[in-house]
Amino acid sequence: MARTDAIVLGAGIVGVSVALHLVKRGLAVALVDRGGAGEETSYGNAGIIEGNTIFPAAFPTDLAALMRIALKRAPEANYHLSFLPQVVPWLMAFRRASRPQRLIETAHAMRPLFARAVGEHETLMQETGASRYLRKNGWLKLYRSAGSFAALKPEFEFAAQLGIPLEALDVDGACALEPSLAPVFRHAVFWPQAASLSDPLAVTRAYAARFAALGGVTLKGDARSLHRAGQYWRVETDAGALDAEAAVVALGPWTPDVLGPLGIRLPLGIKRGYHRHYTAQGNAALSRPVLDNDAGYLITPMAQGIRLTTGIELAARDAAPTPVQFDRLMPKLRELFPLGARVDEKTWLGSRPCFPDSRPVIGRAPGEAGLWLAFGHAHWGLTLGPATGRLISEMMTGATPFCDPAPYGAERF
Ligand SMILES: Cc1cc2nc3c(=O)[nH]c(=O)nc-3n(C[C@H](O)[C@H](O)[C@H](O)COP(=O)(O)OP(=O)(O)OC[C@H]3O[C@@H](n4cnc5c(N)ncnc54)[C@H](O)[C@@H]3O)c2cc1C
Prior knowledge:
- This protein is an alpha/beta fold.
- Helices cover 33% and strands 26% of the residues.
């Protein structure tokens, strides 16, 4: 029977970062995925490495916004009616976690991870030659109504407390940063310390290549074959069965497929999201991610073109795509930016793996010796992959963790 020190299941940005950190600490590691590294959720995101994130996405409190969503008129959110009965308990928990005091607690709990996000990526990028995909030119958020801008007050106050720089801009200030934008908004906020990637897939692949160069083994296999075999965890791969004393489950939105049969039930929800790519008309250009907050979408320059990502869709992970949000947001986008032709024929659909309290699970699986969990990074898995890899590898090897991992424990549920 083939044996290794640790098996990492899932080669998204989280699993690849965990595997790379473990191999750098001298463990023999096998990284198992049914596909190629970084090809799922870690490919299709908006590419933002957001060390500045303060408050997580919250349940809407504005009645008008709720009505718009309920009536399926909101660009920022959609839902499948048939999925609502299933998602209601999760939504209620999400609503409770969205109370102002809870958001502040979450912001404090997540700070150590976000504070290291950009730096941990940069370290891996320098080792892997991936620095060319990194843009350190911030993130611009636009607000069309005075009300949505005024609602940022608590975030501004918290940013000041933490010493996170931001610039509140008028239309001219925002257009000086992004000259192709039309003045259809009233306010803007520039977060200079946010970074972004021009090609998230290429970055995950570069980290995976570094893992292989350091002696890590990459295998194809179905993670659902994970089971106990005596003192070991065993997984079936194309190269045969493989045993290890430690296994890390980092399967993003697919993690419940493996944990469910083991009797581990954690309240993971799914917020689906879509993307499409476009050219820009004439000399129009975009140099950084731009969020059109009130219209519920984000545009960001990528290797493939200008990537338009949608807000959230509450629907079963594997339900057929329903990209209706594009119909609602395209008129708003076309008035903001001179968009050219569509580049891709197929709309990409992915699933953000989200716990109701907007914290990931990083640490031991409850009741299962040798089983570790690293998933549920919601809107910020690309940002937090490398910091997660460092933290869990420190925990697994008995090193002092760079921060207290308690807020991310599965035991909190
Ligand atoms: C529209 C959208 C925009 C986003 N924008 C951002 C952003 O700007 N910044 C940011 O930080 N985050 C963003 N995110 C979130 C981020 O993309 C995710 O949190 C992150 O990619 C999750 O990474 P992961 O490694 O946990 O999961 P994944 O990347 O999904 O990796 C899971 C892996 O598990 C494998 N797998 C699944 N089932 C099996 C099986 N049975 N056997 C073997 N392998 C299996 C898959 O093949 C996959 O490779 C966005 C997400 C979406 C949907």
